[in-house]
Amino acid sequence: xxxxxxxxxxxxxxxxxxxxxxxxxxxxxxxxxxxxxxxxxxxxxxxxxxxxxxxxxxxxxxxxxxxxxxxxxxxxxxxxxxxxxxxxxxxxxxxxxxxxxxxxxxxxxxxxxxxxxxxxxxxxxxxxxxxxxxxxxxxxxxxxxxxxxxxxxxxxxxxxxxxxxxxxxxxxxxxxxxxxxxxxxxxxxxxxxxxxxxxxxxxxxxxxxxxxxxxxxxxxxxxxxxxxxxxxxxxxxxxxxxxxxxxxxxxxxxxxxxxxxxxxxxxxxxxxxxxxxxxxxxxxxxxxxxxxxxxxxxxxxxxxxxxxxxxxxxxxxxxxxxxxxxxxxxxxxxxxxxxxxxxxxxxxxxxxxxxxxxxxxxxxxxxxxxxxxxxxxxxxxxxxxxxxxxxxxxxxxxxxxxxxxxxxxxxxxxxxxxxxxxxxxxxxxxxxxxxxxxxxxxxxxxxxxxxxxxxxxxxxxxxxxxxxxxxxxxxxxxxxxxxxxxxxxxxxxxxxxxxxxxxxxxxxxxxxxxxxxxxxxxxxxxxxxxxxxxxxxxxxxxxxxxxxxxxxxxxxxxxxxxxxxxxxxxxxxxxxxxxxxxxxxxxxxxxxxxxxxxxxxxxxxxxxxxxxxxxxxxxxxxxxxxxxxxxxxxxxxxxxxxxxxxxxxxxxxxxxx
Length: 657
Ligand SMILES: Nc1ncnc2c1ncn2[C@@H]1O[C@H](COP(=O)(O)OP(=O)(O)OP(=O)(O)O)[C@@H](O)[C@H]1O
Prior knowledge:
By secondary structure, the protein is an alpha+beta fold. It has 21 helices and 23 strands.
């Protein structure tokens, strides 16, 4: 039964996106066909799988295919499939709104995009699938019926604010998208999409590998022998007639089953776009074939651009699983560790059941073996890119480094490989990142540890008091500024036999004892003991006075300019780590740290003298709290009671002006 035609409005952000399409400045308008064929192919995959899993579903899957129909007179192009189809609710949810995760992100980015060129970049990042039809069509009609349902849905829009939707009784199962084409305008990259040769070219270029036949009616001229002609009459000329035949335009060859030298870069790129729903180019293509106990083929891609949802909980998956060319699922998490979630592609395993479920996959020995091998292969490929294509490596690291570093925490087996392909900011260069091997090659003679500091910004880390002695002595320090760095760095003891050491924890000894004689060493020790003794009263008094926050006070060897700094025990949490834990809702007991004093700083020297003269005077107690507060602020941490600190400071300044 038909329902009345209902007119609805697009969501605001959908309208904005459509507006971008209708008035598109995106030059590759041809790609609408790839998007529609890709959707149709997905719909056929889904139907085949559903029919296999649900024996009660009454559908004919004997001739699943895609048809392209051209009408040169009416200037329409129709892309039809007999796949899974959509219910009315599906149409409203999937086509009428931007229902996918990331909508908020897209909306924000569209609002931020200053000009149309910037918006076009967003197309590459988000992929806009079905809406790309409005680049080439004035009006788009979608007629669809879901497998197993009796009624269909017709949706129609000009892409300008509203669409109409109605229930129709007579839609064939599957989906047809009918495009009423804009006039041809080659200057605007709008070609004649009713032309046989154009469609042929586009299918070949974008969709040749699609596993389902893409059929189109084509006209052929045939010679016809004149009627009544026989062998004796050779004067009669043969005439010609036009016949219409249906041709399959694509080769349907699974790209992953072909050897790398048989496939062009362009074909790989199009396949990558099909599996990733991306519009960018792959940075690297990895083709892999395993024979023997577990037979499988894999075709993997490292993208050149991170998807917007790389760090979102609900993100689009990466690896499609096939079993002997039959599509099984499009997000097979079991085949790739979480930290390599940006890798896209296909794995076609020979020995799995078509009925395989997620639960089975999680237990499956073969899947685990494939995952191990794929992980190693991706990491070794990144390592190759790092050594042979530094610019590509820089892109890769900028896009995916944060995700890769999660592996340092979660993937013990590949930790060394991951450390080797990782890069970090360092005091060695204001911009260029460094690898650990390079750091080690620059280590000073006598330096046995790899030094690092963690913090929220490069500036805060570089200006932290902990850095002073390292700067003065020209010792390189890695600047680890990602929240994920806090997580892994404490769990990795060393690289290449060199311990990783936080400059904000434990005691540091930067004095190079190697060149000293025994006598010189003894002399230095005696000097230190004497200084400790001279400041013993002050350090003990500060520990008691600041008891709430400080567990020990000692003289520092890491300060040159600041009066004091705070350090943790070697295995304690850093303040940033505590903040992360607290932000994630964990309850941590308040932690106390060690206050280190710079015995050469005038403030510390004056405080020591004042202590000797005034004892427990309240003004000295205030100075102690100010000293502690300054140390907290200088390392970039937050004061627990900033108002109290500000008041102490104001009172003190009032006495000096
Ligand atoms: N031919 C079709 N048959 C069945 N469902 C379809 C068809 N075309 C689109 N859909 C449904 O509509 C959804 C939205 O399609 P759309 O092309 O906008 O985005 P997408 O394919 O999910 O992703 P992308 O935007 O990255 O291409 C699809 O995910 C699918 O569920």
